[in-house]
Design brief:
This protein has one domain: Rossmann fold (3-Layer(aba) Sandwich), CATH 3.40.50.360. It starts with a strand and ends with a helix. α3 packs across α4. α5 links the parallel β4 and β5. Helix content is 39%, strand content 20%. The strands form 2 sheets. The protein has a 5-stranded parallel sheet, sandwiched between helices. It has 177 residues and is an alpha/beta fold. It binds flavin mononucleotide (FMN). The site of flavin mononucleotide has 16 residues, from α1.
Length: 177
């Protein structure tokens, strides 16, 4: 199975990238690719820009990565209760590619984390409701609150209950394939 993993963040020290990278460690038998939005920089969407220059190559390249995958592992940060601009911008550009939806029918394990107690619950709720319209089949959702208390750089998730919950959800995702 080909797995595409990424965080909806352009932070060089993204905690969501750390979480999603940890989650890939449970897919050792699969072909996993972890992308970084910093490698797909693109201008802010503007209709005149699209008319003049077309869709940025980075958006086309990212869409191709989605198309080539069998499963998406995504962890999104929460910025003011919503998607970070960099991730929303990527989705907006990809949505302009003709004849496809953003996630092109792909199954997804949808996650969020933050340093706060809500663990990105607001953006997770928004994404869970919206992504089916964007072509994602959301198989499971998972939130890790208080990242800095519950995650160790070497060991990964240290909170036993949250680790158990994650493992159970990963098993449910795997059972779909
Ligand atoms: C503009 C901005 C808005 C934020 N808004 C929220 C928020 O609404 N809820 C939250 O839990 N954390 C919020 N945060 C804190 C982020 O969760 C924190 O920066 C986190 O590290 C982002 O994830 P990342 O490291 O993967 O980019 C915000 C941070 C920024 C810079």
């Amino acid at each position: 199975m080909k797995i595409l993993a990424f965080a909806g963040s352009n932070s060089e020290v993204s905690i969501n990238k750390k979480l999603v990278t940890f989650v890939t460690s449970f897919f050792k038998d699969d072909d996993v690719e972890i992308l970084d939005l910093n490698d797909f920089e693109m201008p802010i969407y503007k209709n005149e820009r699209e008319i003049k220059d077309g869709i940025p190559q980075s958006a086309l390249d990212f869409a191709k990565k989605i198309d080539e995958s069998d499963l998406i592992l995504l962890s999104t940060p929460e910025h003011n209760g919503n998607f970070p601009a960099v991730f929303k911008n990527l989705m907006d550009w990809i949505s302009r590619i003709k004849g496809r939806k953003i996630f092109n029918g792909k199954p997804m394990l949808l996650m969020a984390t933050s340093g706060g107690a809500r663990g990105g619950a607001s953006v997770l709720e928004i994404a869970e409701k919206r992504f089916p319209f964007d072509g994602a089949e959301v198989l499971q959702t998972y939130s890790l609150p208080k990242f800095y208390e519950n995650f160790d750089e070497e060991k990964g998730i240290t909170d036993e209950e949250k680790l158990k919950e994650l493992k159970e959800k990963i098993e449910k995702v795997k059972s779909k394939f």
